[in-house]
Amino acid sequence: MNAFNVSEHMQALGLQAKTAAFLMARADAASKNKALKALARRLREAGPALAVANQKDLERATAAGLPAPMVDRLKLTPKVIETVAQGCEQLAGMADVIGEIIGMKQQPSGIRVGQMRVPIGVFGMIYESRPNVTIEAASLAIKSGNAAILRGGSEAIDSNKALAVLVSEALAEAGLPVEAVQLVQTTDREAVGQLIAMPEFVDVIIPRGGKGLIERISRDARVPVIKHLDGNCHVYVDDTAEFEMALRIVDNAKTQKYSPCNAAEGLLVSASVAEDFLPEIAAIFAAKGVEMRCDPAAAAILRESEALGAVNPPAKIVDAVESDWYEEYLAAVISIRVVAGVDEAIAHINRYSSHHTDAIVTRDHVHAQRFLREVDSASVMVNASTRFADGFEFGLGAEIGISTDKFHARGPVGIEGLTSLKYVVLGQGEVRT
Amino acid sequence: MNAFNVSEHMQALGLQAKTAAFLMARADAASKNKALKALARRLREAGPALAVANQKDLERATAAGLPAPMVDRLKLTPKVIETVAQGCEQLAGMADVIGEIIGMKQQPSGIRVGQMRVPIGVFGMIYESRPNVTIEAASLAIKSGNAAILRGGSEAIDSNKALAVLVSEALAEAGLPVEAVQLVQTTDREAVGQLIAMPEFVDVIIPRGGKGLIERISRDARVPVIKHLDGNCHVYVDDTAEFEMALRIVDNAKTQKYSPCNAAEGLLVSASVAEDFLPEIAAIFAAKGVEMRCDPAAAAILRESEALGAVNPPAKIVDAVESDWYEEYLAAVISIRVVAGVDEAIAHINRYSSHHTDAIVTRDHVHAQRFLREVDSASVMVNASTRFADGFEFGLGAEIGISTDKFHARGPVGIEGLTSLKYVVLGQGEVRT
Asked: Which residues belong to any copy of the Aldehyde dehydrogenase domain (chains A, B) (predicted)?
């Protein structure tokens, strides 16, 4: 009955993507922007058709007994569609970085040497549930002059197929190859294994999803992976921190939203201010129902704090265990530790953090500079909430993911992370002697 | 008898390197430069001691019947030592890029966001024969603030050990951790397998050697690899090329040296000039004994050429087979093909080249721009010899290798290729709303 051959399908997608990538690399900015604007328009026009496709996914998910929050994430509401349409228009309005040449300098031999930004080629994107990622990835592929092969979650297959049709139409309307963005047409998991093992067609894999998925892909991939593992982010409150600022930043970093990877999971407080600071932040956490997993020093301060005895609901103070320092809770839980000062804070972060985003609150210039330089994380902040670690907040204009790697792209990955720099040499007949 | 445990040795090197890397990342420019200058001085002073160690390697190599060119490459002559000593001094004179912050811009939220250049951490270097690479790698590690674990060729083990002692002494003299540069103390091949599979200690592997070594390492490594596969480089002579310039560049690219990876292995000539150009370049090649593997069109032109009939020694014209277009000869052999024009030249190169270095000789601005943009190679040149693809000629000040990858570093890799950019955020108490 099932005559569909996954391997043949993936090979065909790979070959078509490779061919399309060559044409996309040559495409001028006007054509790419035309495709992005056409995609925005078609998204808005296709509302009713998208709703029909999306309804199929939602019914299947509900019938399968998926939890309500997961069903919610599948929904292509008019608001979600408008947001991705606007995202396409914003990308269309951005300058095209492809072909830019940087650092052109004359060398002693007479040749001039610089670097030209070019697309990477073909990227494979593997993601879960939310169908709007299909449009985000497609629009980034178009703007960056790459080709993409998209493998969305099986729960969203009908929505993704409907969205992929709009992408193809928009590409065709702009005179660009429709194979520049292709959706894997099967939910067979074998397709993922194939996609990550085609170095002849695919230049880089970008997985978005749970830690298990990303570890599995990193282990098995035969091409480079832009990895985003976990976000165990910290805020360190230094001796000279302004209390009001520190309370605002720690509160925001932990409680503004619990689920993002850039939310804080650990609070470090300098011993010199711990007795004053901890009860104040704990009162805020208690009011919001945030559980506090404390080291002995922090626990002692909080359990003895009279102020905290009076809060309602009562503060949830729990003794931390070693594994707490590694944990990405993504929930109303935070680990708290008293440290001797900036040295111990840096040492704790470099040992336990996931190298995603860590912040210091301080007035001390030397401590700020040391923290910036010595904390080995993708984003390091002074006097700002970790929640800012995001491609849009960083001014990248778009974000395909956040890398916790040091290689190639680090931190929020925008268009530039989908490009490489090749050397260009301009001579007048020079030869090597 | 052999109580030496390779696995324990490698784990110890890894842990020590990781610790040293943290201190190296913090080291100031003055200390790093002091170590480099001390290393240069110690290299010059140690001449006699190095000669004794080197003699052991040479005697072992000769006894083992190694071919004379391979024995030559092992030699630590006074000239070789002076060259690497000068290399250390040049690095000491270069600006320190670690800690530099680029692109700091204010965002709508009020935060300022930029990127700081930091060391990658620990790199593992795997190389063959030439012991001077030990000093090149060590000095680049010191300047870039990384730690390095060096695995040299077994033939050079005594020389490498003697050199590694000088590096340790120079680090100690400058107050830097001696474990910042460590030499693997065994020639057991198991050590390589261990080194490439310690992601907890090693951030990147840089192999230098034959294609077989690099393919094996790329396949088995559990950390990123800065790969340099082969150099199948091309020169394309366009319709409007100035003949004198084209002859000079093609001759230089092929014959100035046969063994470097940036030597040309393929010549493409536009059909409109092939009848005039090919006999002239063939006369030069014939005089130098370069064998020409020709497609039917080129072969026909050359075999009918009266001019060529007269050269002495007689030109070696051979019919090319498909595999010739892929070949990195590293010898007095070149493949030659007549193409319809710039489009076919680009298509040939993108299909057969190893994406290392390719050049066009032309007066045509549009063809030059298309070649620069569309040829998918690490270095793309107009009117210059491919032999310029080199870290020193490109002004990088040093070179740890040449990458034929698109990911992270592409083309000649200098200090910057051993660094990563992390985001730094400077706030005044901003939080996310």
From this structure: 16-286, 325-395
Residue B200: which of B23, B27, B10 has the closest Cα?
A: B10
End-to-end Cα spacing for chain A: 68
Q: Which of A302, A281, A303, A284 is nearest to A237 (CA)?
A: A281
For domain B233-388, the question of CATH label 3.40.309.10 is answered with yes
ipTM higher than the 0.85 cut: yes
A130 vs B: CB within 8 A:
no
Tally of CA atoms within 13 A in the half-sphere of A359 that contains its CB: 38
- CATH 3.40.605.10 residue ranges of chain B are 9-226+412-425
Q: Does domain A6-226+412-425 have CATH number 3.40.50.300?
A: no
Q: CB distance B384–A425 less than 8 Å?
A: yes
User: DSSP letters of A122-173?
Assistant: EEEEEE-S-THHHHHHHHHHHHHT-EEEEE--GGGHHHHHHHHHHHHHHHHH
User: Tokens 């998991």 sit at which residue?
Assistant: A189
Question: Would an 8 Å CB–CB cutoff place B199 in contact with chain A?
Answer: no
Instruction: State pLDDT tens for residues B49-71.
Output: 999 999 999 999 999 999 988 89
CATH code linked to domain B9-226+412-425: 3.40.605.10
What does the pLDDT look like over B209-238, one tens digit per residue? 888 888 899 888 988 899 888 899 999 999
Q: Is B289 left (phi over 0), alpha (psi -120 to 50) or beta?
A: left
Angle between helices B365-374 and A6-26 (to 10 degrees): 150
Mutation for testing the A interface, residue in B406, B410, B424 having most A CBs under 10 Å:
B406
